[in-house]
Amino acid sequence: MKTILLLTIFILASILTLGQDIKIGFRDSIQSEVLNENRKLIIKLPRDYNSSEKAYPVLYRLDGDLDLYTETVGTINRLVHMDEIMPDMIVVMIENTKRNRDMMPTNTSFFKTAPGAANFKKFIEEELIPHINTTYRTTDERLLCGQSLSAIFTFYYLLTSPDSFNSFIACSGGFPDCEDYFIELTDEFLKTKQDKQTNIFMTHGLTDFLDPEGMIKKQLISFNQRIESKDNIVNKLKIYDEEGHVPYQSLYHGLRYIYTPKKK
Questions:
Q1: What is the pTM (predicted TM-score) of this model?
Q2: Share of the chain above pLDDT 90, in %
């Protein structure tokens, strides 16, 4: 009877273990006075966060949703635990409410309502980053990653507040119908003095359906060439021959680029 009881307990324990949810993150939120709305977040903490007293860098990723979250976590785990080329980090995925409003800094032919990028940037700087820093153990190192429309916002953030983040990753960004606006921003950006190094990694796919005539590719090449002359800017544009919009390797290659020592 004792043997049967022990065997039953073992089987039940195995079933419970197999039935447990796999937890790789959790939801958080912040009530924004700047945006006058509640902004939802998805958070990933490093594996040893609860068993250590270490502080960690933070990756802020725009267009936050569960699919992009799992892709992001998998990429970071690969680079941290298998490739061993970068530190583990906290991931903060910012979910969208009104994407066009938040990502666009200016009007275009396809976006004619009041642009909200300045307010969204203010929310990140004055509310979100302080919230993350006071809630979790963070270092001063921050990264911002955007894709497609949110890559336009990433460029805007870089050009207007380059010292707010240590690194920027812009996947399939460009300047659709707003190239003159960004040329002016870049002109001002090149005049400002930077005291610390800022990394910017950009990607583009040659089969991008949004760039059938190669105009975005030309914009990115020109932009990359212009900013590489600025002191304390470390930049790279990676163009994928057989990839389309937002190449899935962008974050992986971006983080590898940022954390791999550069040749002098």
A1: 0.90
A2: 82
